[in-house]
């Protein structure tokens, strides 16, 4: 009877395919150009990230000659606290940073390209910086190659470690949705209780008002000798 052999390469492909199926990609890569201005408005790119999530941001912006422009970057989130994680001025060449989020919110990477005061504003369209941005969130932000070298892991073990990270993210996402559903349910129950109490109060007030009107009209008619 023939026995089927499962090679590490085939298993790795299956593991990678499973990871793609069970979780949407958490890697955001974009390349764009940003024109310089004396008072530029920030251009922000947003990605959602849960609290206590590792995020690695890689920025490449080559500079040639006398640039006469300064590229600034700020990493913030859209929570009520408006957390600021990083703020760098004068980005040149390759920049890489790692942060850990503090809230369940959109994470924004914002850029401002500041034109040198010596250049008139009407010539601003001649100055722009090319920006290549990569944002890795969660398991995608982990350097598994470094882990494999440090712990002497095989290719299959590395793929399993990746799947472990993906599964953990799925569990965390489900727990977050569960907590959110519980908060929404508590809010609905509280709202229903308030509506019910308001109904009882309104109904009781109408009854008391009706009784008072009957008593008042009866007293009035007695004074006018219209009824006994």
From TrEMBL:
SMART domains: EMP24_GP25L (SM01190). InterPro entries: Emp24-like, GOLD_dom. It is a single-pass type I membrane protein. GO terms for cellular component: membrane. Keywords: Coiled coil, Membrane, Signal, Transmembrane, Transmembrane helix. PANTHER family: TRANSMEMBRANE EMP24 DOMAIN-CONTAINING PROTEIN (PTHR22811). It comes from Rhodotorula toruloides (Yeast). Belongs to the EMP24/GP25L family. The chain crosses the membrane at residues 198-215. Residues 29-222 form the GOLD domain. This is GOLD domain-containing protein. Residues 1-29 form the signal peptide. Residues 153-180 form a coiled coil. It is found in: Membrane.
